[in-house]
Amino acid sequence: MVIDLTSEVISSVEKINMSTRWDSNPAISPDGSTIAFTSNRGGPHAIWLSGLNGDAVYQGGSLGGAFLDNPAWSPNGQQLVFDASPDGEMQLYIKSEGGSALERLSVGPSDNRNPSWSRDGKWIYFESNREGKWQLYALRSGLSDVVPLNVIAGRNPQESVDGNWILHTRPDQPGIWRCQKQKCFGAE
Length: 188
Fold this sequence. Notes:
Number of strands: 17
Structural class: mainly beta
Order of helices and strands: EEEEEEEEEEEEEEEEEH
Oligomer: single chain
Radius of gyration: 17 Å
Helix content: under 10%
Number of helices: 1
């Protein structure tokens, strides 16, 4: 669905990416030209891409029928990070622009999901239950350095547009929470 947020009154909602199958979690590329989303429109779950108006739809990657979800664009639009569970545990994967290979990121055991990028592209935030509860972590982009964030029971991490805050939800409390980025990483 497309909603014009520049208008004070929502006058129309338009359906795009028509499919009789399950489509979810759209992510618009930084340049505003492409939508990445997950779908089972071709059979098994996969990452799909389309133009902003839902045209030129094509499959961007799959993992042999494994559930894939939560695509997020890198700030430069060259990569997508998402979660998938080909081996039973949810793990993070990267798809580079123009490539068909999907690379598993080394973030450790347990379920790791709901990735998002820092505004500068240096970090990938995600949630993991490796300590027995959902907690936020950051992975240094291009490396395997995983850093736990100083957030109590966090989920769904997103960095603010100005890069100063990490917003998140908590599984046991309502609301949206934020942590100053520097303090989330343990710096005072």
